[in-house]
């Protein structure tokens, strides 16, 4: 069945439909990872987005049990050059097409994804509609123009109720803004006693759980759309050690008096070089973000930049000057991508340990 993608600027791509037969509207973005399509399509940070992959062959190792980053993918559509209909891998349990059908997500294949990526790079991420090729382009374009993008993505993907993932180590409250399971897995690996809480859990409720540390997860959308989380972070700052990833990093910056802005086309891929300003070392990182912390806005705050992106110089890591709190814009849990930055979870363990020791000394 033929389907077409119409961009906000009127560009039309006609290709082969796969996955669910749905019409959908969202923001069109690209990801440059060469593998890891299962993790990408199940990353809740893509809520509301139509994602195209620059790697040309997608689906060849199928879908397995282990690599989901969420149970219900929030992605709006998956756009690829060539969809492999034969999946071959010992872990394979279904094809990409079957998964997308079950989850109600439409796919589009056989389009020039290089052209699509170049348009986004040149003009920035833009809205798009994916529909049957038979639909009238003018009518669909008009519908696209009058449909605003939703701004409640975090509410859509955050857990509704708190749940525990027990361990014998540090108690960590993990604020779920659209958490990738990889983050929970990293905490579990370190035997943390994790309690995952909804995005709008109050500071008071979090205190009652008596955590040794707070983890701020990744998540979709604009950090300014979750003001209640910013207030919660403000209130807990300095009391409890804190580690934030991606949306968590942006919310931390806003809570500390900084500002964020929407990037032209963002960073999405598995090979983004990031420089640690203290050691001068460069790590390859996994990234997925469309907003960034504005470095200039940090003057006068009590946070400092610890890491920057090599490609465009944007802020990639922050640290509080007075309190035990640090954050990164990239994904130390990888899922998918390089694991160079996995040590940051160990740094978080160390931070909690140091704070505990200080508390005992003062007791
Ligand atoms: N992966 C994330 O947490 C993304 C953060 C935010 N939604 C952005 O696009 O910048």
From TrEMBL:
Region entry CPSase, spans: 1-170
EC nos: 6.3.5.5
Residue span(s) of domain Carbamoyl-phosphate synthase small subunit N-terminal: 1-131
An individual GO BP term: 'de novo' pyrimidine nucleobase biosynthetic process
InterPro entries named in the record: Anth_synth/Amidotransfase, CarbamoylP_synth_ssu, CarbamoylP_synth_ssu_N, CarbP_synth_ssu_N_sf, Class_I_gatase-like, CPSase_GATase1, GATASE
Keywords, ordered alphabetically: Amino-acid biosynthesis, Arginine biosynthesis, ATP-binding, Glutamine amidotransferase, Ligase, Nucleotide-binding, Pyrimidine biosynthesis
Class of the enzyme per the UniProt entry, highest EC level: ligase
Family label: Belongs to the CarA family.
Subunit structure, interactors included: Composed of two chains; the small (or glutamine) chain promotes the hydrolysis of glutamine to ammonia, which is used by the large (or ammonia) chain to synthesize carbamoyl phosphate. Tetramer of heterodimers (alpha,beta)4.
Protein name (Swiss-Prot/TrEMBL): Carbamoyl phosphate synthase small chain
Source organism (scientific name): [Bacillus] enclensis
């Amino acid at each position: 069945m033929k389907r077409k993608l119409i961009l906000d600027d009127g560009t039309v791509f006609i290709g082969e439909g796969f996955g669910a037969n749905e019409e959908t509207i969202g923001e069109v973005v690209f990801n440059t990872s060469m593998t890891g399509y299962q993790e990408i399509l199940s990353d809740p940070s893509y809520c509301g987005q139509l994602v195209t992959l620059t790697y040309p062959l997608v689906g060849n190792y199928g879908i397995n049990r282990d690599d989901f980053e969420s149970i219900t993918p929030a992605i709006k559509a998956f756009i690829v050059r060539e969809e492999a209909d034969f999946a071959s891998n010992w872990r394979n349990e279904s094809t990409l097409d079957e998964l997308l059908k079950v989850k109600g997500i439409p796919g589009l294949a056989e389009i020039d994804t290089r052209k699509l990526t170049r348009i986004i790079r040149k003009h920035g991420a833009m809205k798009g509609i994916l529909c049957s090729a038979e639909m009238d382009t003018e009518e669909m374009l008009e519908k696209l123009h009058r449909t605003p993008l939703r701004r409640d993505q975090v509410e859509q993907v955050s857990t509704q109720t708190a749940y525990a993932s027990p361990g014998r180590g540090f108690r960590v409250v993990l604020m779920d803004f659209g958490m990738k399971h990889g983050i929970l897995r990293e905490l579990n690996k370190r035997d943390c006693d994790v309690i995952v809480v909804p995005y709008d859990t109050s500071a008071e409720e979090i205190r009652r759980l008596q955590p040794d540390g707070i983890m701020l997860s990744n998540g979709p959308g604009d950090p300014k759309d979750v003001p209640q989380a910013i207030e919660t972070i403000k209130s807990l700052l300095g009391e409890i050690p804190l580690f934030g990833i991606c949306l968590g990093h942006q919310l931390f910056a806003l809570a500390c008096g900084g500002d964020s802005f929407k990037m032209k086309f963002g960073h999405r891929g598995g090979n983004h070089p990031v420089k640690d300003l203290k050691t001068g070392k460069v790590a390859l990182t996994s990234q997925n973000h469309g907003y960034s912390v504005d470095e200039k806005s940090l003057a006068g705050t009590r946070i400092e930049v610890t890491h920057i992106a090599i490609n465009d110089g944007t802020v990639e890591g922050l640290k509080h000057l007075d309190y035990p709190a640090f954050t990164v814009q990239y994904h130390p849990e990888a899922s998918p991508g390089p694991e160079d930055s996995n040590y940051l979870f160990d740094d978080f363990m160390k931070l909690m340990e140091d704070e505990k020791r200080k508390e005992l000394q003062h007791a």
